[in-house]
Design brief:
The chain has helices spanning 25-29, 56-63, 96-105, 118-127, 136-144, 154-167, 183-195, 223-240, 252-255, 258-271, 284-292, 315-321, 331-348, 361-368, 370-378, 396-406, 408-416, 476-479, 488-494, and strands at residues 2-8, 13-19, 42-47, 50-55, 71-76, 79-83, 110-115, 132-134, 172-175, 200-203, 245-250, 275-278, 300-302, 325-328, 386-389, 392-395, 450-456, 462-469, 502-508, 514-519. By secondary structure, it is of the alpha/beta class.
Length: 520
């Protein structure tokens, strides 16, 4: 007969199944789904009238496992429950933190792109990712156009984070930098991030002002201060009754050594961190060494796009090494910068970005929720208008009645000489070759023809190919500003008798693109 053991804690629930004939600590080692980690001492197993006491050191030697004081396994109908002294969080099951914990407990590795505003977070969600995280590097760039060197403040990060979390339903991990000060600042930061709607918070051990990861000049605080930051974060979480996921990051790999970063990661796990993160690991071997410590605490990998110190591996490789989360901090901000630079270069050269390089206006409206807004707006549409009066709203008829009571002379005059309703008749205009004043109609003759505008880049690739009615020539320079100085009207008049396909213009603009205008 098997005995099921279920661990119920503030951060997560776990269960293991053991043979009823054996309840030794070694049985736990083979059960990878069971986890308790807190810096306390005793564990008591109770089965019938037999007590078995195991010290935390026994578990540590096999698991690096720390169990809370007065943890008790109580048998009830062959089911043992772990009653922990840690305060149980009161967060709702559907809270962002709860969703993130469910992700951590689910199989496989989970990817999280780094967002920097509400729109980028919404795009992450629409693409189907389970979660995202706020990149301090990207937010500093997008919000301040400044480097990630400690210049952005706690208040600015919380403000940006609140806009992001409100825009999506997936959990968001917030970059809490170094907590913006000492342990008391860390507590304020954690509570602020919880109120902003974050599912998790990344806290690092750098000094103030901090330096960006994978760059020079990084320094870390002492071991003691680093661990106290994590303990302060755990205390803040419990004080506010939240289950926010605490991601403990150390930058000591590059600032000190690999051994130092491994020591700190173990200490962070003992202090109550939910996820461990060593920044700027320099090889596969270092990544493996990291994943071997505190094996039951999830690990986060950082794939710095564009060339950092850590090898770029595919998710499957990272999962095989032992990572649970992988983040991509620069992809979205990087491609955004490149796309904006390309578009500005095109506009400077007298053209607009080609249709294939950007969403259509309809696609933009769909992404931003215009259609959803219009559908929801219909629910609140009224069939008759209402007029606001002091003390509330009243219908138009009651308001008119009130006016009539206050102005009897006007009402009386109107009743004596009623007027028939005025009917407005709209007569459509009919386009002829010439208007009433004898001028040429803009949609007749040669002006009813179509112009084809084609732009080919210096590399031979087609950048633009559009057709415009000749009657709308006034708007052609909005599409191709380089045609602003060309008298196309004169060219059209000269080509009045030409058949379709005639080339009217063929020249290169200031950046070398070939611009051709055909008459169709």
């Amino acid at each position: 007969m098997a005995i099921n053991l279920q661990a119920i804690g503030a951060s997560r629930d776990y269960s293991v199944s053991l043979p009823s004939s054996s309840l030794s600590a070694s049985n736990f080692k083979s059960q990878r789904s069971f986890l308790i980690h807190n810096n306390h001492k005793n564990l008591i197993l109770q089965k019938s009238n037999t007590n078995l006491s195991l010290s935390a050191s026994n578990f540590k030697s096999q698991w690096s496992l720390f169990t809370p004081k007065s943890t008790i396994f109580q048998k009830s109908n062959t089911v043992f429950k772990v009653v922990k002294s840690r305060v149980t969080c009161s967060a709702d099951k559907t809270s962002p933190a709860k969703k993130l914990r469910q992700i951590l407990e689910s199989p496989g590795i989970h990817q999280g792109p780094g967002c920097f505003d509400a729109l980028s977070a919404k795009l992450v969600e629409k693409t189907g990712f389970d979660y995202c995280f706020t990149s301090g590097f990207s937010i500093s760039a997008a919000r301040l156009a400044l480097p990630d060197t400690g210049l952005i403040s706690y208040g600015e990060m919380v403000d940006q984070g609140q806009l992001i979390t409100q825009a999506v339903s997936i959990p968001v991990i917030g970059d809490g930098d170094n907590g913006y000060g000492n342990a008391m600042n860390v507590k304020r930061t954690v509570k602020g991030y919880i109120k902003a709607g974050f599912a998790g918070i990344i806290l690092e051990d750098q000094v103030s002002p901090k330096a960006c990861g994978h760059t020079r000049g990084r320094k870390v605080v002492s071991r003691e201060e680093a661990v106290l930051r994590i303990k302060a974060a755990v205390d803040a979480r419990e004080e506010i009754g939240s289950d926010i996921v605490i991601v403990a990051r150390t930058d000591s790999r590059q600032a000190v050594s690999l051994e130092e970063s491994l020591w700190r990661s173990r200490a962070f796990a003992d202090a109550g961190a939910d996820v461990l993160f060593i920044d700027a690991l320099a090889s596969r071997e270092e990544m493996k060494s990291f994943c071997e410590i505190s094996p039951l605490v999830p690990k986060m990998a950082n794939m710095l796009e564009g060339g950092g110190k850590t090898p770029i591996l595919i998710p499957l490789e990272l999962e095989e090494i032992g990572f649970k989360l992988v983040v991509y901090p620069l992809s979205l901000i990087g491609v955004s910068i490149q796309a904006m630079q390309d578009s500005l270069t095109a506009i400077k050269g007298g053209r607009i970005p080609p249709p294939g390089s950007m969403p259509s206006f309809e696609e933009l409206k769909e992404i931003l929720g215009f259609n959803t807004y219009y559908e929801e707006e219909k629910r609140y549409a009224t069939s008759t208008s209402q007029t606001l009066r002091p003390g509330g709203y009243s219908s138009t008829s009651s308001y008119v009645s009130d006016i009539q009571q206050r102005t009897p002379d006007v009402t009386e005059q109107r009743s004596q000489s009623p007027q028939d309703p005025v009917v407005e008749v709209i007569t459509p205009d009919v386009y002829n070759n010439y208007g009433a004043d004898g001028s040429r109609n803009p949609f007749s003759g040669i002006w009813s023809r179509t112009l084809r505008v084609k732009i080919t880049g210096r590399d031979g690739f087609e950048k633009l190919d559009v057709r415009i009615p000749a009657g709308f020539l006034e708007g052609i320079t909005n599409i191709v500003p380089a045609l602003g100085g060309v008298n196309i009207k004169e060219l059209l008049n000269d080509a009045a008798g030409e058949v379709g396909g005639k080339l009217l213009l063929d020249f290169n603009d200031t950046i070398g693109d070939r611009i051709q205008v055909f008459l169709e």
